[in-house]
Amino acid sequence: MKAMSILMNPKNSTKTAISSNRRSFGLTTAAYLWAGPNTALGVVLGWMLGGSFCIECGVIEIHGPRVADALNRLWLPAMAITLGHCVLGQTEAALTITRIHERVHVRQYERWGPFFIPAYLIAWAVLGCLGRDGYRENPFEVEAYRSGES
Q1: Does residue 4 form part of some domain?
Q2: Three-state SS across 102-123?
Q3: Does residue 5 lie in a domain region?
Q4: Listed residue (57, 117, 111) closest to 83, CA to CA
Q5: pLDDT tens digits for 48-86?
Q6: Which of 81, 102, 109, 134 could form a disulfide with 124 if both were Cys (CB 3.0 to 4.6 A apart)?
Q7: What distance in Å separates the CA atoms of residue 55 and residue 116, rounded to the nearest whole number?
Q8: What is the pTM of this model?
Q9: Is 97 a member of any domain?
Q10: Considering its fold, how many domains does the chain have in total?
């Protein structure tokens, strides 16, 4: 019906496109701001570790030898880790391999904002207390791994 309205009155199509772009811009800006504190943490860590920075589809990706060393020293060694709109990876190849999975975490940060890290760690702890795998059975990871399967 909306398409028919646009075809019948082309003036409306421009107005609809502008309105849609404004809404999209507003939601995108809000998502970046909501995830901003975690993104800032990722950028500061990447800078402190002397990582190489690039932007890939609106996400800051950082890699380098000291970043790799830090990721290997985590409680669970990782190829990459997401902090807001920032992904720290061991190498460029690791960032490429994990991109789909890590983008799911970016979207999760957009939903949870500054509450993502506490929620993730609480889920990990609760699962651990129940004798389950706090990483593989963590709902945030389950969602991210499912995306890689599709």
Answers
A1: no
A2: HHHHHHHHHHHHHHHHHHHHHH
A3: no
A4: 117
A5: 999 999 999 999 999 999 999 999 999 899 999 999 999
A6: 134
A7: 22
A8: 0.82
A9: yes
A10: 1
